[in-house]
Write a structure and sequence with these properties.
The structure holds 2 protein chains of 2 kinds.
Chain A lengths: L2 H8 L3 H16 L6 H16 L1 H11 L6 H23 L3 H11 L2 H18 L5 E5 L5 H8 L6 E6 L1 H4 L2 H13 L3 E6 L10 E6 L2 H6 L1 H11 E12 L6 H7 L8 H10 L2 E9 L2 E8 L1
Chain B lengths: L7 E8 L6 E7 H9 L4 E8 L2 E8 L4 E8 L9 E4 L11 E8 L4 E5 L8 E5 L2 E7 L5 H15 L7 H16 L7 H8 L4 E5 L3 H8 L2 H4 L4 H9 L2 E3 H5 L4 H16 L3 E5 L1
Parallel strand pairs in B: 6-8
Antiparallel strand pairs in B: 1-2, 3-4, 4-5, 7-8, 7-10, 9-10, 11-12, 11-13
Classes of the chains: A alpha/beta, B alpha+beta.
Chain lengths: 291, 270
């Protein structure tokens, strides 16, 4: 299935996203406690989806007769759950479902293939000499612990969070659990407190929605600061320049839009060399080396 | 400087399900703090009603989450129900030679293999006192650290089942042998409350968990146990944790907490 058809298929999720927004508005109208921020989110989502009605119709026509592969069916299923998790996060501030959404997303076929490729290639590139791995702003830092577990010595894992992610006790607890359960040393800290690790990381990773929300340019710049010369960047990114996935991720607060050319440009401008891109449906696994 | 009373946040009124007596409890900052630090986000407030104790459970927002009644066998206000466990219950212990655990709020005392002159460590927190006797010498800092974690967990426990506490001391015995093994207060707490808590699976989370099998859990815990939990609508935690092997008890308790932290199961006081 081509990348374009994946984007068309993401339009199939618009009605579910709209239903989620409707549910938030209905709860507020019924007098249930709904934060103003959640209500504004719901109204914005409804307006945006209403404005994209014609695009939805065009995408539906293009999908006519197309067999939706299992890879997309899995993304569809976990994304539907992700909307539920997002609503709970916005309305009641409960992040545990968001963490679970992260973890099951990693187990879909597309993500698993990309993760396996990234962790294997990163470990091979570093030849087991890994002493410090940093994951930026991922609720479930699976890639960092997987790579660190393949170190020939005991690697340290640092999870560097933006303020909003760090502010969630549920997420911070899970991130610490990842480090402990994989029997690694490490810590979870705020990204603006990570200066002691600058220029020292053998590998920096970022892979999912919370990282993407932080902003692609900011992610690449932060990773560049943290990486030692010759250190490896391993990232999973969305190709969300086309409508479809664009609005789905926008609902989560991802407001920058990438395609492969744009991605190459950013990587080069931020001082990385030897970029390697592998496309997995509407996502791309990127590896690059810091100069 | 005079000691300050904890700031009162709310007064809850409810009724004892056993005797029908009105219960009025004050929810203050100390109670809310206890709920915030509790693995299930709850704290219990005990009120004695003669032959039984009513425990009002309060969540971290100060709302009532149910009332549970525990029998109190002691006749007088100063008397404790003493459970003396058979020495066979300690036969697989490697480090701990005996223990005595006093739970003032439930007026319970559990003793096993402890001689009067045998106490080598006494740890207390709130209304829980744990006395231990050891068979061998080892790092004082290790003993102190893990014993404190256990007594801290026990101080907020409401189980009346002595086996829950025996299991927790069994875990302590293993921790002292393998201090590199990661144990937490939450695990001790779940084990010491196992008889009072029921696991309930949540949908669609349990279905998605079975289908996608998140690596973090399926690489760290027993797959059969995880799937058994996810396929069971409701089961007492004491039944899920049942095993003679303290390593297995620990691993299962830890797995249940990991599932709870992701919203796959609920752990409810019943």
């Amino acid at each position: 299935m081509s990348v374009e058809l994946y984007h068309d298929a993401f339009f199939l999720l618009f009605p579910d996203l709209k239903k989620t927004a409707d549910a938030v508005i209905e709860e507020a109208e019924a007098g249930m406690p709904v934060p103003q921020e959640a209500l504004e989110w719901a109204r914005r989502v409804k307006t945006r989806i209403d404005n994209l009605r014609d695009d939805m119709a065009v995408a539906s026509r293009r999908l006519n007769g197309v067999t939706i592969p299992i890879e997309f069916q899995e993304l569809e299923e976990v994304s539907r759950y992700g909307f539920t998790a997002l609503k709970r996060r916005l309305v009641s501030g409960d992040d545990k479902y968001h963490v679970f959404f992260n973890e099951i997303s990693y187990e879909t076929r597309l993500f698993r293939s990309a993760f396996t490729s990234l962790s294997t290639r990163a470990a091979e590139t570093l030849n087991g000499n890994i002493s410090l791995v940093v994951e930026i702003n991922d609720a479930a830092p699976l890639l960092a612990v997987k790579v660190a577990s393949r170190s020939t010595s005991k690697a340290k894992v640092v999870v560097a969070d933006a303020v909003d992610v760090y502010g969630s006790d549920a997420i911070r607890g899970i991130q610490s659990d990842y480090i402990k359960k994989y029997l690694l040393d490490g810590e979870v800290l705020r990204i603006d407190e990570a200066s002691e690790y600058e220029g020292k990381a053998d590998l920096v990773a970022f892979t999912f929605i919370d990282a993407w929300r932080y902003g692609f340019r900011k992610l690449f710049a932060a990773a560049r600061r943290l990486l030692a010369p010759g250190g490896v960047l391993a990232a999973l990114l969305p190709l969300n320049s086309r409508e479809g996935l664009r609005t789905i991720l926008w609902a989560w607060g991802v407001t920058e839009f990438l395609d492969v050319d744009e991605l190459r440009k950013i990587v080069r401008s931020q001082g990385y060399v030897d970029p390697s891109l592998r496309v997995y449906g509407p996502f791309v696994a990127l590896m690059a080396t810091a100069k | 400087m005079s000691s300050q009373r904890p700031l009162l946040r709310k007064v809850l009124k409810t009724r004892c399900p056993r005797c029908g007596r009105d219960i009025v409890v004050e929810v203050n900052e100390r109670i809310l703090m206890e709920a915030r630090n509790n693995p299930l986000g709850m704290a219990g407030i005990v009120e004695m009603h003669g032959d039984h104790a009513a425990v009002v459970y309060v969540d971290r927002n100060g709302n009532e989450r149910g009332v549970r009644v525990y029998p109190v066998l002691a006749k007088g206000a100063e008397e404790y129900t003493v459970f003396t466990l058979p020495s066979a219950s300690l036969e697989n212990f490697y480090n701990i030679g005996g223990f005595s655990l006093t739970l003032k709020k439930l007026r319970m005392m559990i003793r096993a293999g402890l001689q009067e002159e045998g106490v080598t460590l006494r740890a207390s927190k709130g209304e829980a006192v744990l006395e231990l006797d050891f068979k061998r010498d080892f790092s004082w800092s290790t003993v102190k650290r893990f014993t404190w974690i256990l007594v801290d967990a026990v101080s907020t426990s409401y189980s009346e089942n002595p086996n829950d506490y025996l299991n927790a001391v069994k875990l302590l015995d293993v921790v002292l042998r393998e201090p590199q093994f990661f144990y937490s207060k939450d695990v001790f707490w779940l084990v010491t409350n196992a008889s009072t808590i029921t696991m309930k699976t949540r949908l669609p989370e349990a279905m998605l968990f079975r289908k996608y099998r998140p690596s973090m859990l399926f690489e760290r815990y027993d797959t059969r146990f995880l799937l058994r939990v996810a396929e069971t609508p409701s089961e007492p935690v004491s039944k899920l944790l049942r095993s003679d092997n303290p390593h297995v008890v620990y691993s299962r308790a830890d797995a249940l907490l990991a599932m709870y932290k992701r919203g796959i199961i609920d752990l409810v006081v019943e």
